[in-house]
Write a structure and sequence with these properties.
The complex is a heterodimer of chains A (113) and B (109). Chain A has strands at residues 4-7, 10-13, 19-25, 31-38, 42-51, 54-57, 65-66, 76-78, 87-94, 103-104, 108-112. Chain A is an all-beta fold and 113 residues long. With 109 residues, chain B is mainly beta. Chain B contains no helices and eleven strands. Classes of the chains: A mainly beta (113), B mainly beta (109). At the A-B interface, strand 5 of A face strand 5, strand 9 and strand 10 of B.
Chain lengths: 113, 109
Amino acid sequence: EAQVTQNPRYLITVTGKKLTVTCSQNMNHEYMSWYRQDPGLGLRQIYYSMNVEVTDKGDVPEGYKVSRKEKRNFPLILESPSPNQTSLYFCASSRGLTTYEQYFGPGTRLTVT
Amino acid sequence: GENVEQHPSTLSVQEGDSAVIKCTYSDSASNYFPWYKQELGKRPQLIIDIRSNVGEKKDQRIAVTLNKTAKHFSLHITETQPEDSAVYFCAIRGFKTIFGAGTRLFVKA
């Protein structure tokens, strides 16, 4: 089954404790992206990647890191989480950059206390 | 920077009526305009999309119109049903993807 998976689905952590949210897709998609969703703000893009070893900032990259060492994986790293990073996070992938449908993962709800 | 304005933020209609959601954008480089439906606790799901070389696209009860000159596009849902109740997001896609803030649609039976 073609899908995007994220882990963990739920995470409660404390300020400053490094964490990684994994994202994996099995569709051989070149484009992958991370979004955060906050009430009233829609989805905002954190980082995106157009291919292996190619990443770029979205609109809200501060406090986040990403890497794309393999085509299928695109982990999101929070080196020192803060309470303002409490949010719902979605990973997405698509076949190409601009005119292709994005497939979203199930989401990761992160709470930083 | 680029942004997308989406209106209205909340929309309540009677079952069977039509619903229209509008988005305006500022980025001329965008050439792909998707619409997503998100039900409570679920991921966004693509419901219809339109590319910049097309002015209108229809899929059963859902249609999207695009005016590139005026930089706005709209979602039209006809014969609304209670199961259409959800949050709808427009987006623009170039190198980045920018989403509107969302419209919460209530369809009253």
